[in-house]
Write a structure and sequence with these properties.
By secondary structure, the chain is α+β, with helices and mostly antiparallel strands. It folds into three domains: about 15-55, no CATH class; about 60-160, no CATH class; about 170-235, no CATH class. About 35% of the residues lie in helices and about 15% in strands. The chain contains seven helices and seven strands; from the N terminus they run αβββαααααββββα. It has helices spanning about 15-25, 60-65, 95-105, 110-120, 130-135, 145-160, 220-235; strands at about 40, 40-45, 50-55, 165, 175-180, 195-200, 205-210. The strands form two sheets. It has a four-stranded antiparallel β-sheet. The two termini are about 40 Å apart.
Length: about 240
């Protein structure tokens, strides 16, 4: 049996790391690839002078754009248009709409694009809200939904070089978080969308944006629900 892994990482002293490798060699044939550069498609860049680590998915994003024939698309600086209002009423409902949609997609599969983009949220917290909204229409997407999804790809093209930065020496290691919500912006259900983001050592380590399970009767109630969810994550 052959086992390959690219995701074994540990924060240990050099002596402990060497001992750990020696113990593995006693039982398995292993190949030591040296310092970590990639883990599960995420590039890891260490800036030793500043004691910082950068995480990015530049290669993955460019490969994804090629896969969905969007490599030559024009980048955009925003994920959703200011007055974007996506609903199930824009989903396909007639044979004519289905035919027009098939001609427009040119073989692109909505859910395949959604799942590919979702993987980039590991290092791109800025797209979390947009893709969580668009994923809700995966069962029966319409042309407006696919157009909005393509816009996310265009945004990723322009920001593919962005990285998450985790600071090292002299950084504040206190957990700092923010939370907020809109109110009844999910048109089909009247539910609100709440979110949070947490930061440690100058780098974002946890984030979320999702539709709340119940309808809030006021903006205050929606914000309390969002804050409660954020506190559970903090704890």
């Amino acid at each position: 049996m052959t086992v390959y892994t690219s995701c074994a990482t540990r924060k240990l002293s050099i002596a402990h790391i060497r001992r750990f490798k020696d113990d593995l060699r006693k039982h398995f044939d292993i190949t030591d690839l040296g310092e970590l550069h990639y883990i599960l498609g995420i590039q890891v860049v260490r800036d030793r002078p500043t004691h910082a680590i950068y995480l990015n998915q530049t290669a993955y994003i460019r490969s994804m754009l090629e896969k969905f024939s969007m490599a030559s698309c024009a980048p955009t600086t925003t994920l959703l248009t200011v007055k974007e209002c996506l609903t199930t009423a824009q989903s396909l409902s007639t044979p004519e709409e289905c035919n027009d949609y098939d001609a427009y997609t040119k073989g692109l599969k909505y859910l395949k694009i959604v799942s590919a983009i979702l993987y980039t949220t590991q290092t791109c917290p800025d797209i979390q809200h947009a893709i969580s909204v668009l994923a809700q229409f995966g069962a029966n997407p319409g042309k407006p939904h696919l157009e909005a999804l393509k816009r996310v790809l265009r945004y990723l093209k322009g920001t593919a070089h962005f990285s998450l930065r985790l600071s090292g020496e002299n950084s504040d290691t206190n957990l700092v978080g923010w939370t907020d919500s809109d109110w009844a912006q999910a048109i089909d259900s009247c539910c609100s969308i709440g979110g949070f983001v947490f930061e440690v050592a100058g780098g974002v380590v946890s984030w979320s944006s999702k539709k709340q399970p119940t309808v809030a009767l006021s903006t205050v109630e929606a914000k309390y629900m969002a804050a409660s969810n954020a506190m559970k994550e903090a704890i």
